[in-house]
Amino acid sequence: MTTFSKLLALLSLVVSASAGSLVLHEWRTTVPSGFVRHGAAPATDTITLRVALKPNNVAGLEEKLRSVSTPGSSEFQKWLSRDDVLTFTKPSSETLSVFDAFASANGLSPTTISPGGDWVSITLPISKANKLFAANFELFTHPSLNEPITRTLSVSLPSELVGHVDVLHPTTAFTAPTPRLAPPRPGRKIRKRGVPAASCDSTDPAGVVTPTCLQDFYGIPTTPVTHSGGSNNTIMVTGYENDWAQTADLVQFLTLARPDISNATGFTVLTTANGTNPQGPGKGGFEANLDIQYTAGIATGIPLQYLSVGGEFTTALLDTTNFLNGLTDLPTVITNSWGVAEDGFGASLATSICNGYMALGARGVSVIFASGDGGVRGAHGGVCTNNTFNPIFPASCGYVTSVGGTQGFAPETAVNFTGGGFSNLFPAPSYQTTAVSEFLATLQPDFAGIFNKSGRAHPDVALQAWNFETIVNGEVNIEGGTSAAAPTFAAIIALINDRLLAAGKPVLGFLNPWLYERASGAFTDITTGHSSGYRCAANETVAFDAAVGWDPLTGFGTPIFSELLKTALN
Ligand SMILES: *[C@@H]1O[C@H](CO)[C@@H](O)[C@H](O)[C@H]1NC(C)=O
Ligand SMILES: *[C@@H]1O[C@H](CO)[C@@H](O)[C@H](O)[C@H]1NC(C)=O
Ligand SMILES: *[C@@H]1O[C@H](CO)[C@@H](O)[C@H](O)[C@H]1NC(C)=O
Ligand SMILES: *[C@@H]1O[C@H](CO)[C@@H](O)[C@H](O)[C@H]1NC(C)=O
Ligand SMILES: *[C@@H]1O[C@H](CO)[C@@H](O)[C@H](O)[C@H]1NC(C)=O
Ligand SMILES: *[C@@H]1O[C@H](CO)[C@@H](O)[C@H](O)[C@H]1NC(C)=O
Ligand SMILES: *[C@@H]1O[C@H](CO)[C@@H](O)[C@H](O)[C@H]1NC(C)=O
Q1: Catalytic entry in 26, 118, 249, 287
Q2: Is 517 an annotated catalytic residue?
Q3: Closest ligand 1 atom, CA of 233?
Q4: Residue 427 has what DSSP assignment?
Q5: Which residue range(s) make up the domain with 421?
Q6: Residues of the chain whose pLDDT is less than 50?
């Protein structure tokens, strides 16, 4: 036995010896880097745990999604209703009664927190949580967190709950405190109102990328849409961590960047989990404004929503999918420019959140995520000499479309920080195995062992991601990152949906099987670039290189609007 498995054997022994009927559920062997232990959480404090009850038929939903999203299937694009999806995600009556019996035997009063009843929450004293789940809740701090968090390095389930409970949260999930995806900001390059920038080329010191540049380069139409409105075709931008979208900044941005359309486009605000979106001087968030300005600036006339979700990021992601899966009317495209290292979540929580995107995909929503801004080294990069690649989530979930980054127009090349790689949690979905194995075959043998070849590979596509002009708190600001690419791609998909609706066809919904099986030719293949990260010199570190065909920097490449539209209408 390895030391590790000896430790595990010992742990489960201890657990069963002390409580009689507990089964180790999830654990960490070490405290994640950056976090510092501060001793036991006070026994009399209370903790609210979210509990995921096993959905009655995840495999059935997965199969249904495959059927409705795979070209050639008789059910292709016959998207499901809210209630159709809930028949798969609600727990079985057996699971409900097992959990109810456990709760009442232990004096707990669960509250249902998801539309299908698959998530409940329980509030209990720390001492009781420690005992019921063989946990050891402790306080942990991190230099960029204002308050300590309460976590445990291992959690067990009473044996009667095994097979009925999938996740207990927060327990072993420790996500990084900076979930906003952004490389260092390029700085400020002011241009006067009405005066065009010297060029659109982000590799040119005098160049900035604007909606007009993107429209010209990718052939995106500037005319207002005709068939979007009400709930037919809406883009939703999701936001976290009190990053607020400002209406006044959007008006100023549209006046500057889209003088050909009304600057009063606006957006509606939705909130969940105590999210807010206050307006006023100094309240503008860099991410929220970037995402709102590039969806509004590109998807001319498509209704926009901003969903602001309160709370710490891991929990907020959960709250996002639970909120959305409860809505009868959903946006058709959701864009999300946030993410953190996959290993912070742990398998059960990440799987449950990823399944939430599966449910949205089955409802006909294209869920789009930025691929990360640390090259192969996680969300924001890491130590350049560490040659173990670090995948990020949620972009690594196979039910979202991950968007990588490029820069320059002649030639367009993968930007060095474009996130991408291979998941350690999710196996490669069947839609991508051919494309990805062609890439893997080109790698040198010395890549063995530094990433997980069998994992879900991303990004799926890419787009410009450097030197985007935005307005934040009334000032011109320049932004970069795959967080600029994702909303732009979302806008393109929404414009295609509008043409599909006009032709009496269904919207694109979950994109990936269609992208890999039908639409790869509608992208310009990006074949140069090295994803070593923003800080790491290309010759000083190991990373992936862009290649002919699919690659983990730019996926299939960058979209050609007319080709995508032709493929979608076909
Ligand atoms: C939305 O779809 C409905 C039903 O297909 C249609 O009657 C309506 O005109 C559409 N709305 C817009 C703004 O196109
Ligand atoms: C928005 O457009 C209107 C009409 O063109 C213009 O009068 C107004 O100044 C613009 N708003 C801003 C903030 O530039
Ligand atoms: C929202 O705030 C209320 C009042 O502070 C709190 O009780 C509740 O737990 C919060 N909800 C979430 C999801 O954070
Ligand atoms: C290298 O990166 C991997 C993945 O992020 C991480 O698990 C590991 O701890 C790092 N190693 C060192 C020595 O920093
Ligand atoms: C590699 O990924 C697979 C899922 O595709 C997972 O089961 C396995 O544990 C991963 N290996 C490592 C070392 O993380
Ligand atoms: C990575 O690319 C950005 C954008 O072009 C550039 O500013 C930065 O210097 C590059 N980093 C390295 C280490 O070359
Ligand atoms: C990497 O390239 C830079 C600039 O071209 C050079 O100064 C440096 O010595 C090189 N480093 C290595 C390890 O080759």
Answers
A1: 287
A2: no
A3: 1
A4: E
A5: 211-448+455-569
A6: 1-19
User: Which residue type occupies 446?
Assistant: D
Angle at 464 between CA 462 and CA 465, to 5 degrees: 100
**Do 302 and 434 belong to one domain?**
yes
Give backbone dihedrals phi and psi of 367, rounded to 5 degrees, phi first.
Answer: -100, 120
Rounded to an integer, what distance in angstroms lies between the CA atom of residue 67 and that of residue 403? 24
Binding site annotation covers 551? yes
CATH code at 405? 3.40.50.200
- Which is the catalytic residue, given 26, 118, 241, 291? 291
Same domain as 356, residue 237: yes
Q: Are residues 220 and 272 in the same domain?
A: yes
Q: Return the residue whose CA atom lies nearest to atom 12 of ligand 3.
A: 273
Same domain, 164 and 219: no
Nearest ligand to the CA of 230 is 1
In contact, 237 and 307? CB cutoff 8 Å: yes
Query: Is residue 526 a known part of a binding site?
Result: yes
Long-range CB contacts (within 8 A, 24+) of 14-20: 15/134, 15/156, 18/134, 19/131, 19/134, 19/156, 19/158
- Is the Cβ atom of 311 under 6 angstroms away from ligand 3? yes
Using CA atoms, how far apart are residues 20 and 17, in angstroms rounded to an integer? 6
DSSP state of 328: S
Q: Identify the sign of the CA torsion 119, 124, 127, 131.
A: negative
Q: Is 525 part of any known ligand binding site?
A: yes
Return the ligand number nearest the Cα of 343: 4
In a domain, 462, yes or no: yes
Same domain membership, residue 134 and residue 262 = no
Q: How many domains does the chain have?
A: 2
* Burial state string for 311-333 with b = 16 or more CB within 10 A and e = fewer than 16: bbbbbbbbbbbbbbbeeeebbbb
Q: Which atom of ligand 3 is nearest to the CA of 273?
A: 13
Q: Which residue is listed with tokens 């970037």?
A: 290
Give the end of a domain, one of 150, 169, 188: 169
For the stretch 195-233, pLDDT in tens is 666 688 888 877 899 999 999 999 999 999 988 887 799
- Whether residue 184 lies inside any domain: the answer is no
483 is catalytic: yes
- Residues with C-beta less than 6 Å from any ligand 1 atom: 227, 229-230, 232
Residue of 353, 481, 459 whose CA lies nearest to 401:
459
Considering Cα of 393, then 417, then 181, then 337, what sign does the dihedral take?
negative
Co-location of 293 and 347 in the same domain:
yes
Give, using CA atoms, the residue closest to atom 6 of ligand 7. Answer: 539
pLDDT tens column, 106-156: 999 999 999 999 999 999 999 999 999 999 999 999 998 889 999 999 999
Q: Which atom of ligand 5 is nearest to the CA of 423?
A: 2
Last residue of a domain, one of 112, 144, 169: 169
Total residue length of the chain:
570
Give the ligand with the smallest distance to the CA of 329.
1
DSSP per residue, 385-415: T--S-B-EETTTSTTSEEEEEEE-STT-EE-
Contact call for residues 22 and 15 (beta carbons, < 8 A): yes
The model's pTM is: 0.95
Active-site residue, 291 included: yes
Residue 347 domain-assigned (yes or no):
yes
- Which atom of ligand 7 is nearest to 539's Cα? 1
